[in-house]
Amino acid sequence: MPRIGEKHIGLAGGNVQIMPVYPVVLAVHDLPSHTLEVVASAGESWVLLGRDVLNSHRLLLIGPELALEIG
User: Fold this and answer.
1) 0.85 surpassed by pTM
2) S-S: 69 plus which of 37, 44, 46, 60, CB 3.0-4.6 Å?
3) Domain boundaries, the chain
4) Is pLDDT larger for residue 2 or for residue 42?
């Protein structure tokens, strides 16, 4: 992925780390796609979706049925 910049990220204990930023296109089924700037951490295989991403969709979690609906 092409690196498009870097951001200062605050960590626990008041430390700050400079991390690379990459463009990512997020698409969920037939919903409109979004291009996002994401921060990557070396060796991390999981991602966290920020509030900006979650707020752009309607999410319905049905816990007892183990179901998630995105609209």
Assistant:
1) no
2) 60
3) 5-70
4) 2
CA distance 27 to 15: 33
Q: Are 45 and 53 in contact (CB under 8 A)?
A: no
Could you tell me which residues come within 8 angstroms of residue 64 by beta carbon, excluding any fewer than 6 positions away?
A: none
E strand or H helix at 52 = helix 51-54
Interval 18-39: pLDDT, tens: 999 999 998 988 888 989 888 8
At 64, is the pLDDT very low, low, confident or very high (cuts 50, 70, 90)?
very high
Which of left, alpha, beta for 21 (phi over 0: left; psi -120 to 50: alpha)?
beta
Six token digits for residue 65: 């049925």
Q: Cα separations (Å) of 31 from 51, 55, 69?
A: 18, 14, 12
